Amino acid sequence: MFIGVDPGKTVVSPTPLRMSSGRALRFRSGSVTEIVPRPPSGRSRADRIRIASQVAFASVIAGALLSAVGVPWWISAAVALVLVTSLATRQARAAQPGRLATPGRPRRRSPRVEPAGDSQAYVLVAPRERAAFGQALALSRRIRRTWPALRDMIDPVDADRSLAAALHELAGVLAQRQHLRRLRAELAESAGYGLPPTSPALQALADQRERVDALWQSTRAEANRILAALHAIARAGEDFVREQRLLETARSAELALAELTRSPAATEAPELAERTSAVIAAYRELLRRSN
Predict the structure, then answer these.
(1) Strand ranges, E, within the chain
(2) Where in the chain are the domains?
């Protein structure tokens, strides 16, 4: 799965993302690849022209030297042209602010884009939905950082698949809420135009408002459920890692004291069964809901 974030939108897609302008930084964690725009180079047009001119001049000199040893001049000229053109293009792109290209071109204004395949790409542009997904993305990073310590308790492949599925599901719910927010605003702006309460048009409008409000409440509950599950997994894993570290510190101190006092080292350790069960149960629940 590919997750791209630029200043104007957040894109969650099962297919690779590309940039419409600027360059990208890519970070891969398991099956999830995050894409963010690279900062612009800051070079002005004059600077880019100067650098390209220097490269062109160096290419001319190199071409002349190659011609002196028998290399056809047109080969050197072609190589120089390709080199200078490629450099100028890369410099111009690097100087632009980074923007992600929207996957596909929907015919209607909709946050949901249908790519080739069964999965869907989602584009989030509303600040609230973007903030909620950003929170989930931060939680997913926290979860992944606990996996090395949990390698004996969870299957990393299943955990990665479940986490990616949860993020994709959340993106779909948030995209739906984004669209519902626009519908709620449009319905709220619709007035009765002086029609009597028994008007069929007014009744139809009220029915649509009820349906939109019901869906609004259900999507909020679903988004909160996914976020709560991710938070619970991150918290349980981090608590387990901290307890393991404390346990190792206590064992080291115990051995040191035993050596100093020349007494047999005790083998008592804090009970971690409850915390371990919580971590495993949280991952199993996420895997069950994502299937």
Answers:
(1) 2-6, 9-13, 19-21, 24-29, 32-37, 99-100, 112-113, 121-124
(2) 1-40+96-125, 46-89, 126-190+204-291
